[in-house]
Amino acid sequence: MRRTAKLATTAGAFVAAGTVATLLNGRHRTGRRRRRGEDVEFGSVRSTPLSLLAPDGVALHVEVEEADHPTPTVVFLHGWVEDSDLWHYQRLALRGRVRSVFVDMRSHGRSGRSSAGNSSLADLADDLETVLEQVVPEGPIVLVGHSMGGMTIMELARTRPELFGDRVEGVVLVSTSSGRLMRSSPALRYLVPLLRAGTPVLDWGRRFNSYSVIRRWALGPRAAERHVDMVNEMILRAPTRVLMDFYPNFVSLDLTAGLGDLGRARTTVIGGTADLLTPIKHARVLADRIPDAKLIVLEDVGHMAPFEAHETVTRAIEDVLEDIES
């Protein structure tokens, strides 16, 4: 009886501590949100939504920003446990100037849920092809992908090489990799034990001081507080099952077969020297293996370059557009 009471007391203390921590974290998040000082609130930039059906029936959420004059269409693909708000700054900078398409990948953002068995890079590449066929049926295309979004572009180049250099005239790969990722990414190695522990542990752990975890693993040492906070807000929106379902894609990643064909499009590769998820050497490998690719190295920038170095990322997209249009 005494032991039962002690266990109950311990459990109660644990729950109480967790409740207090959650309240404190909530207050900290509210304070950081107030301090952001952004002219346009993060997550508020929207346009008329489209719902497309993927080949296996998953509903894909797509938003299109039309331009004031005809331009190549830029299609933006976010990464793992992200959503289309990743491109907050690029969307604002290019709004009205460039026709842009923002895709929430399957199981992410406002798109429908996919099963674990249908969460492969091949499925994502099929989704991308569906978006191109239905939303960009004609005219030149620039594909911009961050992390898993970049991998999706590389997978499309492997399976549909004829698109590159014809329909797809430009590519921007941001903080991504073509393979051998698990051997060099300390953040992914750190994540393995958590994934094996199961979803309940991850659900609790992700919300317990998530800001510090995101700052440590996803951004560079000089990242602004507002950018860390935006990334933290975005990643916490993704269900934990998305971590579990898409993780196998990175274990045996090898996308080298499509890099030669991808190089038929004007390609820029961007990587940060402080990226712990896709270390800078992966950007260098991509630039070496993609014919005539341009490499942009961002000093002290982590994995979330579209926030940390948003002006440079936007300028890289503009440069590709200028090359295509000239």
Automatic annotation (TrEMBL):
The entry's keywords: Hydrolase
tRNA-binding keyword on record: no
One term of GO molecular function: hydrolase activity
Keyword set includes Hydrolase: yes
Recorded superkingdom: Bacteria
Domain AB hydrolase-1 residue range list: 74-313
One GO term describing the cellular component: membrane
Pfam families: Abhydrolase_6
Record's protein name: Alpha/beta fold hydrolase
Organism: Aeromicrobium yanjiei
Organismal lineage: Bacteria, Bacillati, Actinomycetota, Actinomycetes, Propionibacteriales
